[in-house]
Amino acid sequence: EVQLVESGGGLVQPGGSLRLSCAASGFTFSSYEMNWVRQAPGKGLEWVSYISSSGSTIYYADSVKGRFTISRDNAKNSLYLQMNSLRAEDTAVYYCARMPVVTAYFDYWGQGTLVTVSS
Amino acid sequence: EIVMTQSPATLSVSPGERATLSCRASQSVSSNLAWYQQKPGQAPRLLIYGASTRATGIPARFSGSGSGTEFTLTISSLQSEDFAVYYCQQYNNWPPRFTFGPGTKVDIK
User: Fold this and answer.
1) How close A18 gets to chain B, by Cα (Å)?
2) What is the tens place of the pLDDT at every residue in A26-44?
3) Of A34, B30, B52, B62, which is most buried with the most CB atoms under 10 A?
4) Could you give phi then psi for residue A113, rounded to 5 degrees?
């Protein structure tokens, strides 16, 4: 069974940093591209970042470029999101989401971790 | 950026009735369109990809259609577990600029 379990969310002050993790199991993690998608409270879904299966190709939404860094450790079956210079508008539930091979929708999602940016 | 719109924002339907949800793209996305279902406090669940292909384990009462800029998700006979928010997502861009619609909430009439 495919499982994605996020962790690392919490309350952080504006300008602060946080590192999210996503532990994957039930599939060959190193074969899949992965993403982070977020959802502000009561709002819709926003794609945040993509990383290729090897980690060699990375993309970001304009709203987080230069502040967030996606990475992965295939030996540990883990995906990460380093978030710096956090703003109030980054407050959201952050989901890690798997992307099937050779396409670009999201077939499995984690349960999400809440990041709250507030003083 | 491709802007996705969905209508209606809220759809009130009685159990057993048919629900038709619309999604429109600001420019053609071919058939690179997915639908997700999200219940309160849960992660989104993939229903449809490629505009019309049901994901694994999705009941046949869910069907998708359309291409280009106009898409439809139809739930043929609503069950109690189908009351949720439904999002469409385009994945036609590369490098990725994936965008989602604002969602349609299907609630009980």
Assistant:
1) 21
2) 999 999 999 999 999 999 9
3) A34
4) -135, 135
